[in-house]
Amino acid sequence: MAVKDTRTITQVFFSRKRHVDIFPRLHGLQEIEYPAKRNPKEVGRLSAMLCKSCVVALKGDIIGITRLKPPGKVMIRSRSQSGSDFHHCYMTEGKVWLPMGSITYHLGLLFLGEALAEKESSPDLLDGLEELLSYKEVAGEKDDHYLKLLMHFADELYYFSKWKDGNPEKDKERLDSLKVHDAASPPEVTLGSSIDPAVLTDIEKLQEFRESKEKKESKKAPKSSSLGSRFK
User: Fold this and answer.
1) For the chain, is the Cβ count within 10 Å smaller at the N or the C terminus?
2) CA 110 to CA 142: how far, in whole Å?
3) Any bridge partners for residue 27, and if so which?
């Protein structure tokens, strides 16, 4: 009988010391010289798992972002890293549905989706993304400064995941209280509007998205549906 993992989600995020995906010079718990704006420390520490979430998103492997009607939040469709399948992940208030019910980089993808769906609550994270994409457009993604900005973006993702737009020094964290379920048995959700995933990879589209105002939802009542097999 397998021993139940009793670690918190925060502990899982920072448990890996190996290098980050396609960037062997980055590794878990590495010092972040340019930490998140809300990080009270002069030097942060890198979560390899959340940094991988950022890398996967920047590669264009998020191919669908859909807002969900309350009490839902967002649904993410992403390419499998093996390239042979797709994954669907879901977020409602206080609950997430992930592949095999496991804490992996998919949770970071969901938080990125939430940050876009509720962009007014994620200015620091989206500033970090915009700074990164602006630099990448001019200089590419191979030099030290790009890696510095990537680590900063990952740290911003951690602070958004942990406190959303709250104050880390006085507000209650939300990450470790999340209930995690298996996406193989997805929730009944009601679809809202879609967000172009290209805002995560294209600086002009990101800037247009941040400047745009939300369109009013159609008054026509949408259908509630469990979407586990809809896109297969």
Assistant:
1) N
2) 26
3) 19
